[in-house]
Write a structure and sequence with these properties.
Structural class: alpha+beta
Strand order of the largest sheet: 1-2
Number of strands: 2
Radius of gyration: 14 Å
Distance between the termini: 36 Å
């Protein structure tokens, strides 16, 4: 499976995975349980907040 990515575009943060099957792993299906591959931790959120603050101050 392809790598998870985080990308900043202006004031928007894109977090995801470009694999076509990623959505099925992330959300599960009727026959497959959730197995999240895109996980945003508290540390990730804090880092994104700091980056956003720097962008707004610039």
């Amino acid at each position: 499976m392809e790598a998870t990515f985080a990308r900043v575009s202006g004031l928007v943060v894109h977090i995801g995975n470009s694999s076509p099957i990623a959505i099925y792993h992330q959300n599960g299906t009727r026959s497959i349980p959730k197995r999240p591959i895109v996980v945003v931790t508290r540390s990730d959120l804090n880092e994104l907040k700091q980056d956003l603050k720097k962008t707004l101050e610039a």
